[in-house]
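Me: Here is a favour to ask of a fellow structure person. Could you put it straight underneath, so I can go through it closely?

Assistant:
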Amino acid sequence: MKKLKYLKDPHARVTVLVILLLILPAVFRSVWFNKGAGIFQHYTRSVAFPEYSKLEIVRPELSSLPKSNDPVITSNAEVLFDISHGNLYDLSELETLTNLINHRGGHINVTDYYNDFESELKKVDAFVVIAPTLPYEKAERQAVARFVERGGRLLVIADPTRSAMDSFLSLEETMGSLGNTEITNLLLEPFGIAYSKGYVYNLAKNEGNFRNVYFSIIYEDPISDGLSRVVFYGLHSIKSAPKPLIVGDGNTLSSLTDRGSGLIAAASAAEGRVLALTDLNFMIPPYHRVADNAILIDNIAEFLSGTLRERTLADFPYLFTRPVTLMIDGEKALNSGMLSTITGAQQSMERLGLELNISNEPEKDHDLVAFGLFPPDEALEPLLAPFGLDFSGIAEDTETEEEMEAVEEAPALEMPITSEELLALEGTEIGALLESLGEADTQALMESLSEAEIEVLMEKMQDVEMEENDGGSGSTMDVPGFGKVETDGIGLILYNDNDGQSTVILLADTQDNLQILASAFYNGIMDNCAIQGQIAVCLLNEDISDSYWEGDYGDYSEPDYSDEYDAAG
């Protein structure tokens, strides 16, 4: 009864209710999950587990690597990688490509921001541009176009996964930068290639991700030799190109329009000297082993380093790639002018990192330099044969020894008694008279004339000098591309690349002019030269070195800061 009375107490009932609410859920869970210890059974559903032993993971196809251990013809090609335009890649990422270039005997170079851009292109055979974020100046774009015209190879890769926003550059460093496509489109404009901004994808068949796209429509080309299928990992499409190389199928679409059919992933131009790609990642391990990517990379290495570019005079002064032999006539004594020319040539070759040897005949595996005067010696005729020059118009000195002695023994003109008689003479007679007088008689004569008479006298002599300069010696030569050219005060620079041997021949009308021409050539000055093909015709009547410095830099004077100092003081 006491217990019942206790339960009638409201506080007791609350206490019991709380205890039950705490205990009953735990008891229920225990009974339920332990299947009621046989008291009751609840409904259970069996879970079907996959047969893991029979599962097969879909892996991308792997192609065999190119036979890089097979002997190849080494070309000693120079390949230049651009790192001066905010390029978003590291050269270490491209070891797959660079190792293949080195295997072919090629040499890897990188641009230097502080060097002249066009001069760097003159030194190399191929130029590689990857993911630039800083635009190329107009002069740089023109230099690249001229480089390709001279036979250079150009590889451009615009990758949508490489942009300034993805890099760790500060805001200040990226201000004013453009995307891959804008910069590369300007660079490739002369070749008719342009990238689209959108990325390419394929939902129907891909390599693990809709942006990892298979390509099997491949057109015949040295770049596509041996390819049946490649995979690109995040790429732009090329919206215009003279020659498409790798093209997507109907399921390969563009993010700009969600349409496809014929999207271009790789293309070439300029008779195969320009290659445009839209993805960099396919070169980077482990993606370089997927499908036929390794074969494609090997073909690109061959494109960049398989052959040397034929040098032209436009590549001056970087015409030589091997030790240089300076050929001289062993039967002639070296004078001071020729020795000075040889010394300048040695110093110039040393600055270019080349060795200069002196010999009276060409040497095997050496480039060649030769000097000569108009008309050239017989020893130079084999070297001059490829240029088609004709020196038959050069007048020979036919004056006999007797005629020369008669001139020397001719009596000097007698001095006129009056100024009227002096001014009545021809300009040539006045010159002969002044040459026959001594210094004292010449001074006395000039003092006896008025200023007006002296002015008339000088005008007559100047007219004679101008006639002599205009008339010259009458000697001419036929130069292909220029026609007839007078030899007075003129020099020729001739360049020939025969089976990899670079030959330069310098010709002038006099020994002094030959020294001027050689000095200008070895110091990289061709401002006074007109170039047509492999021949340069140069004017030697003025000091070329002086005109070079004045033309390029103008007059310079130290700025005067005295006013600023006075104001500050």
Summary: DSSP finds 18 helices and 22 strands in the chain. The two ends are 114 Å apart (CA to CA).
